[in-house]
Amino acid sequence: MKIARVDVVLYRIPAEKPRVDAIQSVEAVEMPVVEVTTDSGLTGVGFTYTIGKGGPAVASFIQHDLAPLTLGEDPLNTERVWQKLWWGTHWVGRGGVSSLGISALDIALWDIKARHAGMSLHQLLGGARDRMPVYSTDGGWLQLSEAELVEQSMAFLEQGFVAVKMKLGKPDGAEDVRRVRSVRKAIGDDAKLMADVNMGWKSHQAIDMARRLEEFNLGWLEEPCENDDVSGHARLARSTSIPIALGESLYNRYVFKEYIEAGAVSIVQADVGRVGGITEWMKVAHMAESFNLSVSPHFLMELHLPLVASIPNGLYVEYVPYLERVIEEPLALKDGCYEAPKQVGLGFTFDNGKLKRYRVE
Description:
The protein is of the alpha/beta class and 361 residues long.
């Protein structure tokens, strides 16, 4: 079986409601979707995403630079093809556009691999657990008033989510502290609460703010500083009892290795759509396991569910409902968990009728 054709289509899915964090307003998700067709007629679908900008660049890079490297290759040789893509385009950087593009193609190949085996991706990758607990980020955005933040955090817990996460990064740190205090008071001491700064603080701010936030028993403090600042995160981790979570802005296993070896991260949040696809995501996840660290991936809950349920050190799935509008069967919460999909392939299917309305011509 050989790869005969690669097609790329770009979609732009606007936000249904405002989503603001410390560094950006999420107006849309741009999603390059790749379909890989083999000479036997078997096809696989993969995709990546950007937060409103850069989607055309990623789609173009896939079509003109990455796709030709895959033609004629056996799609079941995922490691071979991944290495060919990695080394074939290394001169343009090992992150950003190139990593996103590799992710989309690699995911499509794993879809083919699972379909060829007649297995779900979850089972193919190891099937460590049948269900995963889910926490919600979607009620904690920075543009919400304090009252709205409290109301939505309580609502998600009442809906059955096992935890909630809120955004931090207000210009006045005292306001962040007040907002955390209000949420904690409303949801009670036993409810799980996490906080996400989206790289909004300098390292000295992070150390100060972590000290002020320790009384609220946070499950983790996410992306407190610029993602290139490994030493700053390490200093922070040594200065606080709050676990440090990060990974959505890291693009390969070598950078994760630097963070892990420096003791700068407790919760690994690798994003399969950004880190180089399933091949690289699994390497990061197993490396985290060898250091006794948990993995709680960022975004893309439909695709991350079978991945994080396939490993023994998976912690949570993150609820941010962006793809629900364009897939056939949205995930259903049961007892605070999503059940690992049994469907052959990735575990979900795009609804082409719904998806086509968002196509960028």
